[in-house]
């Protein structure tokens, strides 16, 4: 089976669901943001402050290029990784891209008190979530598989991913 790349907006469950999928399949879990933090010895929020979003996206693409060569991996990617076609091409080389989705209300509920989300450190996070979702929608739709996480437990989402990836084949 191919690598499983999890994309989708922040708060859709990529990390939590990714852990379950990796556990069930005996795959390695390699979180893109965690790898960036390890490599740069800085938190994502610090990288954003120091390099801005364009600088962060460059670092992210370099890490994705390297991670995409691995085998038997579940790779949760940051919500904006889909914005660069090179990232999608790298993910697709050895992987199937699964996009997790949730409503803006659910996303805000899941991320509302999380100060590690640099893009949501604004006066009106709901407005920002809706803007970013609208902007990223055509990119998320390039995924091989779309899964709505509304009203589902992380375990239900993980099982659906495994089933759908196996049937993709």
In short:
The protein contains seven helices and five strands. It is an alpha/beta fold and 169 residues long.
If you had to describe this structure to a student in words, what would you say it looks like?
This protein has a 5-stranded parallel sheet with strand order 2-3-1-4-5. The protein has one domain: P-loop containing nucleotide triphosphate hydrolases (Rossmann fold), CATH 3.40.50.300. The protein has 7 helices and 5 strands, in the order βαβααβαβααβα. Helix 2 packs across helix 3 and helix 5 crosses helix 6. The model has no long low-confidence stretch (mean pLDDT 91). The chain is globular. The N and C termini lie close together (7 Å). The chain is α/β, with parallel strands linked by helices and 169 residues long.
Instruction: Name the CATH homologous superfamily.
Output: P-loop containing nucleotide triphosphate hydrolases
SSE run = EHEHHEHEHHEH
Instruction: Give the CATH topology.
Output: Rossmann fold
Globally, the shape reads: globular
Distance between the termini: 7 Å
Largest beta sheet, briefly?
5 strands, parallel
The total strand number stands at 5
**Total number of helical segments?**
7
- Order the strands across the largest sheet as they lie in space: 2-3-1-4-5
Please give the radius of gyration in angstroms: 15 Å
Low-confidence stretches: none
Structural class: alpha/beta
Overall structural domain count = 1
Q: What level of helicity do the residues show? A: 55-70%
Q: Kindly state the mean pLDDT as a whole number?
A: 91
CATH-derived architecture: 3-Layer(aba) Sandwich
CATH class: Alpha Beta
């Amino acid at each position: 089976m191919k690598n499983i790349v999890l994309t989708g907006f922040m708060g859709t469950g990529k990390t939590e669901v990714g852990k379950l999928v990796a556990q069930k399949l005996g795959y390695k879990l390699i979180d893109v943001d965690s790898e960036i933090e390890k490599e740069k010895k800085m938190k994502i929020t610090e990288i954003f402050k120091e390099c801005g979003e364009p600088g962060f996206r460059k670092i992210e693409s370099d890490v994705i290029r390297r991670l995409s060569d691995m085998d038997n991996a579940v790779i949760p990617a940051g919500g904006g990784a889909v914005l660069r076609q090179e990232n999608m091409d790298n993910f697709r080389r050895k992987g199937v891209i699964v996009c997790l989705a949730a409503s803006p209300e659910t996303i805000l509920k899941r991320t509302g008190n999380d100060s590690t989300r640099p893009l949501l450190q604004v006066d009106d996070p709901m407005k920002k979530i809706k803007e970013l979702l609208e902007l990223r929608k055509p990119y998320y739709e390039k995924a091989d598989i779309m899964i709505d996480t509304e009203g589902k437990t992380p375990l239900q989402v993980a099982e659906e991913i495994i089933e759908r990836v196996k049937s993709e084949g």
